[in-house]
């Protein structure tokens, strides 16, 4: 298929700990899809939720990616350096009447869907406020700046994907719920909507998603080729047996992954 624009993909880990098999599967899928399409592949450190970040985890992630044979294009973007851009977009939404302050705590809301309590005025002026965007058909009014002053992942990721010209997002199905929210923001901010592909998440024997919370073991750099083979197997890829190093395995797999 002829693509009208240059493919730009990305891997966007949160530096909250070392990469595990689940993150490797996501990295491999987005990397192979980008390379197969002759595209760029960017790495972005999603450190917007600063309290959850672990010092040094970013460098550890980059070293791991290198050891696994990945090559990324351009400098690594850090969300902590992007506050002004997020603020500017929040200001734009406010000016358009599409964002409002909200004093409701999670406990006040008490439901998965925000009922719009503060839409016509903040309930409790004494409390620190979060900012919500006015939702659409598929989303409630969700938080884009938290009451602790940090920007929410939903806003950061959309502003960054647009700023970096990302055309194709390949990520875990655990983020499926976020996609309509991100599309809502893209619409309000006048951004193009990238192609989204969600790949199944890797679970442990108890059926839980691999994560820091479920104590997923860190990837072993000294066993990179085998770890990579395991990640490729999850994606249904069995590269040629001649490929032995991580780099060769990735090269040999480039044409073997085909995503919708
Ligand atoms: N930073 C997010 C995570 O690590 C990924 C965001 C995305 O791919 O859109 O779960």
Question: Nutshell version of this structure?
Answer:
With 260 residues, this protein is an alpha/beta fold.
Care to describe what's here?
The longest helix is centred in the N-terminal third of the chain and has 16 residues, at 21-36. This protein folds into two domains: 8-81 and 165-258, HUPs (Rossmann fold), CATH 3.40.50; 83-153, Rossmann fold (3-Layer(aba) Sandwich), CATH 3.40.50. Helix 1 packs across helix 7 (224-234), helix 5 (153-163) packs across helix 6 (178-189) and helix 7 runs parallel beside helix 8 (246-253). It has a three-stranded parallel β-sheet, covered by helices on one side. Helices cover 33% and strands 13% of the residues. By secondary structure, it is an alpha/beta fold. It contains eight helices and eight strands, in the order βαβαβαβαββαβαβαα. The two termini are 12 Å apart. It binds glutamic acid. Glutamic acid binds at residues 12-14, 46, 157, 171, 175.
